[in-house]
Structures are given as structure tokens and as C-alpha cells.
Design brief:
Layout lengths: L27 H15 L3 H15 L3 H11 L6 H13 L3 H14 L12 H25 L9
Amino acid sequence: MRGGKGCYGPPLRKDYHLPQGIHSPSDSKARIALALYREALSVQNIPYEFLGYCKIINVCYHTTSDQITWINKTLPQLTDRRARDRISELSAMENDIGDYLYHSGRCAVAHASTTRVVDPDNPDDVFRLSADMRVARALAEYLIENQLGITWELSR
């Protein structure tokens, strides 16, 4: 265990600061969403970065159906051009984009026992998740800004 006896949790980077103009929110959901966002941005692994953005949705929406419903309801609200482009591509291939992102993205990364598993050594899986990443990140940013009330200039 790092940090000696009685030190619990992951080691923290002493040089990390919240983005300018953001103070640690008092709301516990907002605090964890920002922490998960920071973690997702810092991950050097596409499947786990994708999963990190999905975990932010899970902060407010706990069931599978609630997450899928929220994703589908929120997709038209996204304004990021790259996310909109990917949503258009997915619309031509998928009947239910929320279900696709949840099962072929989130669950396929998080669970090795499902029928759809992301193989981090398979370039096709990584390329697909990389393309879907812009949508997952835009959804996470939308939730943080519009539902948790945290606003800051996000680098897009």
C-alpha cells in the first residue's frame, strides 16, 4: 500500500489543479463527476477512457434502461461537431444509438463475460471506440454542465 499504514485510496498527483474558475463543488455527485472526467482525460488507453466517460453518466443514471434512455434523449442536444458527425454515421448503422453505446461500448469494455467484448489488441475494436469517444465525451460534458451545473471552458 502506498503512503504507509492507514493511507487509503489511490495516490493523488500533487500538481493537479481543477480547471481555472472551477472550485471543488460541494455536491458529491458533481465532485465525483469532475474527478471521473479528469481521470478519463488522463487515461492512456482508449477503451478505459471511453469507460471513464460512461461512468460519469452512471453517477446520475443507475440502471441500464435509465442510461440508454438518457443517452438517446441527450444526443440531439450535443453541439460538438465531431460528436454530431459520429452520431450521423451511427444513425445509418444503428437503430438505437444509446443501446449501441451502452452495450457495444461501456459493457463491452467493462465486462469480459458479455457476448460483445472489446479486445484491446484488436485494431478494429480500438478504432471503433476511438470514433465513438467523441460522443461519449460530449455526453459526459453535457451531463456535467447541464445537469450538475458545472461550467467551464472545455478544450474541444
